[in-house]
Each structure stands twice: as C-alpha cells, then as structure tokens.
Amino acid sequence: GAVVSQHPSRVICKSGTSVKIECRSLDFQATTMFWYRQFPKQSLMLMATSNEGSKATYEQGVEKDKFLINHASLTLSTLTVTSAHPEDSSFYICSARRPSGDGELFFGEGSRLTVL
Amino acid sequence: QQQVKQSPQSLIVQKGGISIINCAYENTAFDYFPWYQQFPGKGPALLIAIRPDVSEKKEGRFTISFNKSAKQFSLHIMDSQPGDSATYFCAASSTGNQFYFGTGTSLTVIP
Questions:
Q1: Rounded Cα–Cα distance for residues A11 and B25 (Å)
Q2: Looking at CB atoms within 10 Å, which of A61, B1, B52, B104 has the fewest?
Q3: Chain A within 8 Å of B41 (Cβ-Cβ)?
Q4: What burial class does residue B29 get, using C-beta atoms within 10 Å of its C-beta: 0-12 exposed, 13-18 middle, 19+ buried?
C-alpha cells in the first residue's frame, strides 16, 4: 500500500484563491518531507524541504510567501499555494524520507493544480 | 550544475528486449542510488536502489549495475514489457541530505 498519501489529486481553482495540498506519511514518522514541482515531460524540481517543528527551507527562486509550507506533525506536511495564478498550474509532489534503514524516499501520488 | 546526469532522454525497445538507462554522478559523498518509475499523472515509485558497497543488485527483471570507480550506475530491464513503458529517474543522495534526480528517460516498449 501507499507509504505517502497526498490529497487532493486534482484541484481546479480560480485565479486569486488559495489552495492547500496535504501530504501524510503513513508508514513512518517523517521529520523531513520534501515538496517538488514537475512540469510536463521534465524532471522533479525541489521547491522546499519541510522540517517538523521548524521553518521550511526553500530552494533558490521559490517564493516562500506564495508557497507556504507547514510541517506541524511528524506525519503531516501541507503546501498552500496562496493567491494562485495560472502560471502556478503544475503537478506538485511531496515525499518523505524513511528515517531508518536505507533512508528510502517515498513519493505521494501528486496533485494536479489548474488555476483558471 | 546537474549533480546526476542521465541518458538517454528517450528509449524505444521491442517487447522482450533489454532496456538500459545510464546515470553518472560527480559527488563521491553520495552513498545511496535509487531508481524511480513514474507513470503519467502519478508520483514516482521507488523501483530498486543500491549502495556503493555492491556492484550489482537484482530484483526480478530489474537490475542495477554500479561502477564506483567510474561513478556510474545503470538500470537494466530484462524481458521488457509494454507495461514497463514509463519515465524512469535515477537519483543519488548522501545520508540525511536531499536527493538529486536525473532528467528522466521516457521508455516505450513496443508490443
């Protein structure tokens, strides 16, 4: 079964509204979770590293005020796209790294955001 | 700078053939090398992974070959099937740090 659950899988919103995407680690407690953005036929672009109980670390060029990340518990991280615009339309994927063993990285199913 | 270089960008293989995807890295601190399979509209799924203390790992039809001295690793898909048609990503990481992904290979297996 799924190790990381992501919801919603698809969301359509109007320009100017905010959208929240949830990412849950089902199999282990994840102190660190990652958020990626993927454009069609391209690789995964790391947006930010979500750390439980502290502020997220954003990659260069990612607007932290637009992409709000909260990691309030060891099993839940959320990404909120604020004041969404059509250019924010994309495929967003979260992931969690197992804290023990090989430290495998598991991905959620992804969320397709369409901003009208 | 691309931490992990992946080739080819796309690959077409006949059913029953062998699919080979290659990756190279520079950072010798990397100690974990996974491969992911991604179908359209889905998140990547962990396929198989290797650590640098072994040169090969096999799981079913999927094999990773690892060459530490050359800093290269590859994914071999034996007896390729149409259901294997997907995008494959290699990745590398060091303990506790972020993962670096290749640019992806779009595999098409022709019946």
A1: 37
A2: B1
A3: yes
A4: exposed
DSSP B32: B
- Do residue B93 and residue A103 have CB atoms under 8 angstroms apart? yes
pLDDT in tens, B8-48: 999 999 999 999 999 999 999 999 999 999 999 999 999 99
Nearest chain B residue to A92 by CA distance is B43
Q: Nearest chain B Cα to A37, which residue? A: B43
> What H or E segment, with its residue span, contains residue A90?
strand A90-97
Amino acid at B77: I
Chain B, nearest residue to A109 by Cα: B43
Q: Nearest CA to CA, how far is A110 from chain B (Å)?
A: 5
* SS3 per residue for A4-65: EEEECCEEEECCCCCEEEEEEECCCCCCEEEEEEECCCCCEEEEEEEECCCCCEECCCCCCC
- Only one residue has tokens 């990285």, namely A105
